[in-house]
Amino acid sequence: MCRSIKTLRPPVLAEEATEDEIRAAALQYVRKVSGFRAPAAHNREVFEQAVDAVAGATAELLAGLEVRGGARRAS
């Protein structure tokens, strides 16, 4: 997929992913699928909405993941 997106769950990350790390991954994903590094002014709003949606879904996913042999992560 996109080499700039890193794994955000333990044990890969020693601590819980920060909002900045989640947003950076979401931004890279949206850039990859849209084909735009930075959207034109007329696409900026939908681009940012997509980044917000992907970041939200990523935060939900990470909060709900259960790492084998570990406790469920609290949000």
Task: Note down, in words, how this protein is organized.
InterPro entries: DUF2277 (IPR018735). This is DUF2277 domain-containing protein. The structure is a single chain. The two termini are 27 Å apart. It contains two helices and no strands. The relative contact order is 0.17. It is mostly helical. The chain has a domain at 19-64. It has helices at residues 19-34, 44-64. Helix 1 packs across helix 2.
Give a summary of the structure in a few sentences.
It comes from Streptomyces pactum. With about 80 residues, the chain is mostly helical.
Task: List key phrases describing it.
75 residues, DUF2277, DUF2277 domain-containing protein
* Quaternary organisation: single chain
Order of helices and strands: HH
Q: On the 0-100 scale, what is the average pLDDT?
A: 87
* Class inferred from helices and paired strands: mainly alpha
Radius of gyration: 14 Å
Portion in helices: 40-55%
Give the overall shape, derived from the CA principal axes.
elongated
Low-confidence stretches: none
How far the N terminus sits from the C terminus, by CA atoms, comes to 27 Å
Main beta sheet strand tally, sense and closure: none
Number of DSSP strands?
0
Task: Give the DSSP E fraction (strand runs of 2 or more residues).
Answer: under 5%
Query: Count the helices. How many?
Result: 2
Protein name: DUF2277 domain-containing protein
InterPro entries: DUF2277 (IPR018735)
Pfam families: DUF2277 (PF10041)
Task: Write the topology of this structure.
Layout: H1 19-34, H2 44-64
Helix pairs in contact: 1-2
Pfam families: DUF2277
Protein name: DUF2277 domain-containing protein
InterPro entries: DUF2277
